[in-house]
Design a protein that fits this description.
Length: 281
């Protein structure tokens, strides 16, 4: 008796599905998967904003995240630092998340070494974490809030901090976070002190901040790992973690396809059972 299409699908050996899932996970880890990169307006806007800054401008880069969201946000920090150091922009690094301190130490040290920038406080400062209403306080007196950098050096003694009193001496503030701390950056440094604000956020938060792009309260945004990959593309850095991570999306897509096959298999199974019951009746 000739089998119907439904019968053939129901009787597919499940091992084939398991093999497909295994290949989807393993192949992107073994072979580099290059995906075409199409940049989005929020990422392009932040890139253009950074490009418009003259050498020796100062920006704040706040790594407001912890190890749990590091895979999405750390590639953004790497790309932004590369762009800033390449342009000769001076970077004040800080964090509103206690667990972000060591992440900042690592990324600032590594990227600055790649560019041959000495840790003498002339091109960047990593100030680390401070407790309290920091975003309100730095609008009035940044030196009083931080006093020293992460290594304990007096901020007044560091070359890039000479003449700095508060946010007035910074052209742009960028916060990278997996929480709603971005609202605080928009409301205080942005609205209260009139600074340009940009955000990098995890995937679950992207939709929350799009209205602030439309209202002009954000000058740009990096949406999740895709945003990091797009920024890497714009600065011609093609071996970054963002682009590599997006290569794994191929495997994820195949895994999703496998899930669809499993769901369809169950649907067809129940359809077959219903058909068999009709025949028995």
């Amino acid at each position: 008796m000739k089998k119907s299409t439904i019968d053939k699908i129901v009787n597919i050996n499940p091992r084939y599905v398991f093999i497909l899932v295994a290949l989807a996970v393993i192949l992107p880890m073994v072979f580099e998967v290059k995906m075409p990169t199409i940049t989005s307006p929020p990422v392009e806007a932040l890139y253009k904003e950074m490009e418009s800054l003259p050498p020796d401008s100062r920006i704040i880069l706040s790594l407001d995240y912890d190890p749990a969201t590091e895979p999405e946000l750390h590639p953004m920090a790497e790309a932004l630092l590369r762009h800033a150091f390449r342009k000769g922009i001076r970077v004040f690094g800080m964090t509103l998340n206690l667990q972000g301190q060591n992440l900042g130490v690592e990324v600032f040290a590594r990227i600055s070494q790649e560019f041959g920038i000495p840790d003498d406080g002339s091109r960047y400062v990593w100030a680390g974490f401070r407790i309290g209403p920091v975003l309100l306080q730095i609008g009035e007196d940044m030196i009083e809030v931080f006093q020293t950098d992460f290594q304990g050096r007096d901020l007044r003694s560091l070359p890039m901090m000479k003449g700095v009193r508060n946010l007035d001496e910074f052209e742009l503030c960028i916060s990278l976070s997996g929480t709603n701390v971005g609202y605080n950056w928009i409301n205080l440094p942005g609205t209260r002190y009139g600074k340009k604000i940009a955000l990098g956020v995890t995937g679950v938060l992207v939709a929350n901040f799009y209205p602030f792009l439309q209202s002009g309260q954000l000058v740009g945004m990096l949406p999740a790992l895709k945003g990091a990959a797009e920024y890497e593309h714009l600065i011609d850095y093609h071996t970054g973690r963002g682009k590599r991570g997006m290569g794994f999306s191929v495997g994820l897509s195949l895994c999703c396809l496998s899930s669809v096959l499993i769901i369809l298999g169950n649907i067809f199974y129940f359809m077959q059972r219903a058909k068999e019951k009709q025949i028995e009746q």
